[in-house]
Amino acid sequence: MLPVIGLDIAKRVFQLHTVDSDTGEITKLKLKRSEIVPFFSNRSVSVVAMEACGSSHHWARQLRSFGHEVRLIATKFVKPFVKGNKNDAADARAIWEAAQRPEMRCVAVKSEAQQAILALHSMREGLVKARTAQLHQLRAVFYELGIDLPEGRHWCVKRLPEAFAGLEGRVPAMVIEALRDQFQLITQLTERVESIEHKLDWFRRSDERCQRLLEIPGVGLLTATAVVASVGDATEFRSGREFAAWLGVVPRHSGTGGRVRILNISKRGNSYLRAMLIHCARAVMARQKEHSAWLQRLMRERPWNVAVVALANKLARTVWALLAHRTSYVR
């Protein structure tokens, strides 16, 4: 049986906790960042457990290259094992204890390529938020000056030339110039968003998994590339149901005394992927002319948002089936 090491990672100081299986001796050790690679490269093969947090995938790849078995554990599963006051030593001990639980689920280690694609998604999301904020601010200024711009980026931008013309002679020229500069910033943000989307499209063309996912109704470029980059090997999930539960599009249960209540969705796992799949479900329900009998009955008997999440759950299971079994979507 391999020895287990609990490793609490940080930017500069790493805390290690392990127990000798023969003597029961407890080892607590602080290591600097520069000491991690020499320490583990010279150590016998072990099970190294870490919290799934910032830079954990990088260190997992490093330790795997030395032959160690790495287990990444979600922070919420480690927290119950922290005893007493929270500090690095207590965290390392909690990680060590959590790693030895037989039913503990671990996070799959991502490759550098996966993290690179997810970085593009993160940058795009930040740019979209910044563009939306700038556009809302611009609409607010025009509204205070008596010009009501329509909602939605496309229609708002289309009306802006007319809105600027309406301000001529009413407000100082320096104010109009500042508003035009902000409009130019919105245009630049849009160009950067489109540039990232072109990069994601290049990845989509080079990966056959993305091309198969795009055959699913409602699934587009962003969802397909985000799923492939986040999931990696879909066979790590035992079923489509488990994959949907990981995304949080399943109801929470609360029960006692033999009575179980079905609550709202759990919202566990990757919130970005969950949002993408829910958007896909909304697109299918809003635009598809001929719905299946199952979806038609669901839309009649359940509220709109409940039907959307149910369809998102079905899409998640379909995505898992295509990735795990390497098949194509059949309409």
Structure overview:
It is a single chain. By secondary structure, this protein is of the alpha/beta class. The protein folds into three domains: 96 residues, 2-Layer Sandwich (Nucleotidyltransferase, domain 5), CATH 3.30.420.40; 95 residues; 117 residues, no CATH class. The chain is 57% helix and 13% strand. It has 13 helices and seven strands. The chain has a five-stranded mixed β-sheet. It has a two-stranded antiparallel ribbon with strand order 6-7. β6 and β7 form a beta hairpin. α10 crosses α13. The longest helix is centred in the middle third of the chain and has 34 residues. It is globular, with a radius of gyration of 25 Å. The two termini are 49 Å apart.
Write the layout of secondary structure elements.
Blueprint: E1 4-8, E2 13-19, E3 26-32, H1 33-41, E4 47-51, H2 56-65, E5 69-73, H3 75-78, H4 88-99, H5 112-144, H6 153-167, H7 173-206, H8 208-213, H9 221-231, H10 240-247, E6 251-256, E7 259-265, H11 271-287, H12 293-301, H13 304-325
Parallel strand pairs: 1-4, 4-5
Antiparallel strand pairs: 1-2, 2-3, 6-7
Helix pairs in contact: 5-7, 5-9, 7-9, 9-11, 10-13, 11-13
